[in-house]
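Aim 2 progress update. The chain analyzed this quarter is reproduced below.
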Amino acid sequence: MATTADFKNGLCMMYNGDLYTIVQFQHVKPGKGGAFVRTKLKNIKTGKVIDNTFNAGVKIDTVRIERRPYQFLYKDDLGYHFMHMETFEQTSLSPDLIENQDMMKEGQSVEMMVHAETETPLSCELPPFIVLEVTYTEPGIRGDTSSSTALKPATLETGAIIMVPLFVNQGDKIKVDTRDRSYSERVK
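Predicted structure tokens:
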């Protein structure tokens, strides 16, 4: 058990029967009335962010969440299969727990958030940047721009489709930002 005095960004708690993490909080002491804490809470399973206000001193149930390194092995009818990098234990996840699953290739390292008491996986995240090869894109035509940031669709080696600049060609390796699925730079 913790109180509102223990709030910090990233703290995980049980609230209304779901797991939430604190994205932002602010202690407020108005001139009249009792103090309170204004928070933004992110649902770990759905990713939805809600605003909530707690009275000062309210007790909350904290939950221990661990980030563990895993490696993506393969995908089949049962789901996505991963191996823990230190214990070599294997686990499988359903696609709804994995962010950007269409950008994962075999051997890719990922971070899995696991509920420490029940050992249940909550979500799986790719690293912020990954390097992938462009398997198909239309050739860019010089003078085909109406602005300085002209983009075209490109299919990556995993089957994901993202928008890239006109100078990127088939066979190029590019760095992709997995947080917003955007092109970052070409890799030699």
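The mean pLDDT is 90. The radius of gyration is 22 Å. These observations will guide the mutagenesis experiments scheduled for the next reporting period.
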